[in-house]
Amino acid sequence: EELNGVGNLMDFLDEPFPDVGTYEDFHTIDWLREKSRDTDRHRKITSKSKESIWEFIKSLLDAWSGWLVMLLIGLLSGTLAGVIDLAVDWMTDLKEGVCLSALWYSHEQCCWTSNETTFADRDKCPQWQKWAELMTGYTEGAGVYLLNYFLYVLWALFFSFLAVSLVRVFAPYACGSGIPEIKTILSGFIIRGYLGKWTLLIKTVTLVLAVSSGLSLGKEGPLVHVACCCGNLFCSLFSKYSKNEGKRREVLSAAAAAGVSVAFGAPIGGVLFSLEEVSYYFPLKTLWRSFFAALVAAFTLRSINPFGNNRLVLFYVEYHTPWYMAELVPFILLGVFGGLWGTLFIRCNIAWCRRRKTTRLGKYPVLEVIAVTGITAVLAFPNPYTRRSTSELISELFNDCGALESSQLCDYINNPNMSRSVDDIPDRPAGPGVYSALWQLTLALVFKIVITIFTFGMKIPSGLFIPSMAVGAIAGRIVGIAVEQMAYHHHDWIIFKNWCRPGADCVTPGLYAMVGAAACLGGVTRMTVSLVVIMFELTGGLEYIVPLMAAAVTSKWVADAFGKEGIYEAHIQLNGYPYLDQDEFTHRTLATDVMRPRRNEPPLAVLTQDSTTVEDVETLIKDTDYNGFPVVVSHESERLIGFVQRRDLILNIKNARQKQDGVVSNSVVYFTEDAPQIPASNPQPLKLRRILNLSPFTVTDHTPMETVVDIFRKLGLRQCLVTRSGNSCGCYKVVAEQHIEVNKGVCYFVDMFIISSVSEN
Question: What are phi and psi of 402, to 5 degrees?
Fold first, then answer.
């Protein structure tokens, strides 16, 4: 006999028919049932493996299928990430000009191959021409500037229009970041099509278009969605995962780790991100497999080498100065700024998204994307720091100013008598280029803060990691330059006296940019451990873990003071997804206070074990919208026998009417081992014991609610029955964070959410 009655599910057929034991769209899975199924499947394979060599080989293949899936996920997600990176570089540069020697080369690649590039003008080469130069033959002048400006805006509008059109027509689920939905799916919710093949294809293509359009968004969050789509694709190849929603979610957790691994070049950070931020159920076995998937994905990306620097990381930096204890003060202030920015962003973005959902604005997604892109492109082009891609901006802000740097940010006044090594340049007074850059960065900071609020949540793929890091990096670089100049001009102040001598290289502004980026990303997402690991993997700055930790913790404390929710939890709540958070349940209530039915409500709708007819069951299903029913001995005793799912009842009765002779409306349905005593003139009864869950989870009516909520969290229950003296008296289902939603009348737990246009009562 199978555990929980899960197994063949039909007495009158040789094999179970499709869809029995599965879940409908926008419903929650039963983790206990899925675990029980997998235990039964594994027990069968183990016992069969002793029968023959072939069965033993099959058992080995089954054991290794998990590692094979991880290998495939790593290879595909790494390849897709590499292709996306290369395509984004090319299409971002396409807005400004074209490479005449090879159309598919980006600006950087075009000038690599040129023999006519000088070191001072390393970004200029005859093979690369801006659009105005190509059309008019002139390189300077107001007309040339305006023509380049116009074409920049035109390309941006074209890319974003193409992205939103593809999403709207082919894959509506390809929009947004995807992480809120991934979190919800990993907690046990079913959203069919969200991880499908079309979503994978369209998200990959439109992600390139959206990032290339110059909008204030990143590709990191959507890459997690892309990797999970890869995971879901490979799950369908193995029945071990395709037929078990619980096992499938273990694979998706590992796929999320691979997604972050290729997004940032941070395999360890990816595993920690999946553990800390995304996954709901994360056993040790999944940790190992996540590590392997992240490793393979990172190795694949490194083989493709999309950044052309033979490094896996996006913003590799080399600082030549250690940090000093006194610098913890500005680092902590950056943490405070990150927490305040995170709070401001979450509140403003959620208010705007709510307005989009509840007003006519939501009916015109294409128009909204076009409008935001137009405003972004028009305001971004005049400022060199907003015109370039956000990744390039962050990379420049992180960089230390060496002797060979030609950036405006490195326009310091040099001492002609200086005879130091290249790596040890002392602090110098800022030149006019630095002050000009500071004004441009301040304008860029205001622009990024405002425009990101309106960009995140539009109907195109949009990640939040890079825009948040850009805001923090700009603020950090400004603070870093300010501290550097204070240390230079006032080195006799008590705070600088002990560690900053005249002529020494004391302050590294790029480090402040890195700390600011971590602080702002932490303020928005509320990540801590994984954030610090991602940041030091991203930059190679292992020595600067303490400043990063100080900023991340401060950022989280400040942001949590204004609200516990990160941006992803806020969007989960906004969309009405069922997600039970891990926070404390503080209400002092008992199970009897929450269960249904209550007094003055209709009695509990139940099935009896051997006296209900097929017609009675069909009427009950028609008249109610509960997803399952308790089975009791009789209406008089109401002693609980088990629980049966609505979907399984419908499928079994429909199949029995088609394939089993003699089953009619007045046939008796029985859930007992032996058929009830009925007259010979009566029609053939229908036995449904195999679909009965004989061990539904029950609590007594005096169980404290904090215990019940804890049980739901830790066991992943789909429903729970409330009994008094062994009799079924009610039931409920935990639906959302610190919220108990109870069914009307009987033990089925109605999902009270609206998702897209699908509503369930």
Answer: -90, 180
Neighbours of 79 (CB within 10 A): 17
334 within 8 A of 476, measured Cβ to Cβ: yes
Chain centroid to CA 334: 26
Distance CA 107, CA 86 (A): 12
C-alpha dihedral (255, 258, 263, 269), degrees to nearest 10? 120
Q: Which DSSP string do the residues of 507-568 spell out, in sequence order?
A: --HHHHHHHHHHHHHHHHH---HHHHHHHHHHH--GGGHHHHHHHHHHHHHHHHHH-S--HH
C-beta separation of 448 from 471 below 8 A? yes
Q: What span, in angstroms and rounded, lies between the C-alpha atoms of 553 and 360?
A: 40
Residue of 469, 436, 475, 731 lying closest to 603 (CA atoms): 731
Angle at 115 between CA 113 and CA 121, to 5 degrees: 95
CA of residue 64 relative to chain centroid, distance: 27
Using the structure block, give the residue that is written with the tokens 């030609």: 406
- Residues 146, 502: Cα–Cα separation, whole Å: 47
CA torsion, ordered 354, 356, 358, 363, to nearest 10 deg: -160
Q: ∠ at Cα 191 (271, 267), nearest 5°?
A: 10
What is the rounded CA–CA span in Å between residue 14 and residue 543? 65
Is beta strand 720-724 parallel, antiparallel or unpaired with respect to 698-700? Answer: parallel
Query: Distance between CA 110 and CA 78 in Å, rounded?
Result: 25
Q: How many residues does the chain have?
A: 761
User: DSSP code of 690?
Assistant: G
Q: Which residue has the higher pLDDT, 8 or 322?
A: 322
Q: Reduced to 3 states, what is the DSSP secondary structure of residue 533?
A: helix
Is the predicted pLDDT of residue 120 greater than 70, yes or no? no
DSSP 632: E
CA–CA separation, 722 and 91 (whole Å): 59
Considering only CA atoms, which of 470, 482, 310 is closest in space to residue 390? 470
Task: Give the type of residue at 282.
Answer: F
CA angle 753, 757, 761 (to 5 degrees): 35
Edge to edge, the sheet with strand 607-608 lists 607-608, 628-632, 640-645
* Axis crossing angle, helix 365-380 with helix 432-455, rounded to the nearest 10: 180
To which residue do tokens 């293949």 refer? 61
Beta bridge partners of 727: 639, 724
Contact (Cβ atoms closer than 8 angstroms) between residue 180 and residue 577? yes
Nearest 10 degrees: CA dihedral of 538, 539, 540, 545? -90
What is the spatial distance between Cα 171 and Cα 320, in angstroms, rounded to a whole number?
48
Quick: pLDDT tens for 159-208. Answer: 999 999 999 999 999 998 999 999 999 988 999 999 999 999 999 999 99
Using CA atoms in the order 525, 528, 534, 535, what is the torsion angle rounded to 10 degrees? 90
3-state secondary structure of 607: strand
Q: Which residues contact 15 (CB under 8 A, 6 or more apart)?
A: 8
In sign, the C-alpha dihedral spanning 177, 181, 185, 187 is positive
Given a cut of 60, whether residue 342 has pLDDT beyond it is: yes
Question: How many CB atoms are located within 10 Å of the residue 133 CB?
Answer: 16
- pTM of the predicted structure, to 2 decimals: 0.86
Residue 27: alpha-carbon gap to chain centroid: 20
* Opening angle at CA 126, ends 125 and 130, nearest 5: 90
Place of tokens 């609610």: 705
**Most confident region among 312-321, 429-438, 612-621, 752-761 by mean pLDDT:** 612-621
Q: Is the peptide bond before 597 cis (omega within 30 degrees of 0)?
A: yes
Q: What is the pLDDT of residues 563-575, one digit of tens each?
A: 888 999 999 999 9
Give Cα separations from 743 to 3, 403, 605, 733 (angstroms).
Answer: 27, 70, 11, 8
CA distance 724 to 699: 9
Query: Rounded CA gap, 465 and 456, in Å?
Result: 11
